[in-house]
# Entry
Amino acid sequence: MPRGSSFPSVPEEHHPMLDCAEKHLDLEARVEALEEAIVSGVPQQSIATRFETQYTRISEVGQNINARIGREVDSLRAQMKAGFAAVDERFEKIDLRFERVDERFQKIDLRFEQIDARFQKIDERFEQIDERLEQIDVRFEKMDERLENVEKRLDTIETLLVRIDAKLGDDRSN
# Structure
């Protein structure tokens, strides 16, 4: 190392290979000088101590973040549970309304069944009336036949009366 540098150097009269302990101490002194010169921040601390301090700080920040996340998650879970409870309550109310609607539809269905039964009775009555009208039509047809026969007889009687009247008129004139 050049002279005048802030780093300690090995004296020229000693050869570094001869004394390992001295070399080790010299290297430690150089590392400390480098740490003080290169790493800013807290003086008189080694890089390892500074890394450990940073690691500890980062770890604490991470733990704080995890704790906050945990609290937020717990809060969100509580909110979600409350929300689900509210939704369940709303669905229960809706279910009650649907039950009422179902009851109303059942009453309406019952009314339609009663109306259908009445219409069936009315249809049966109309069928009976149709049967009676058919019977009356048959009777009227028979009456029409009888009246035709009576008319034919009356025509025959009228013809006979006209003939008799004509004979009587001839006999009176003579």
Observations:
- Confidence is low (pLDDT under 50) at residues 1-5.
- The two ends are 194 Å apart (CA to CA).
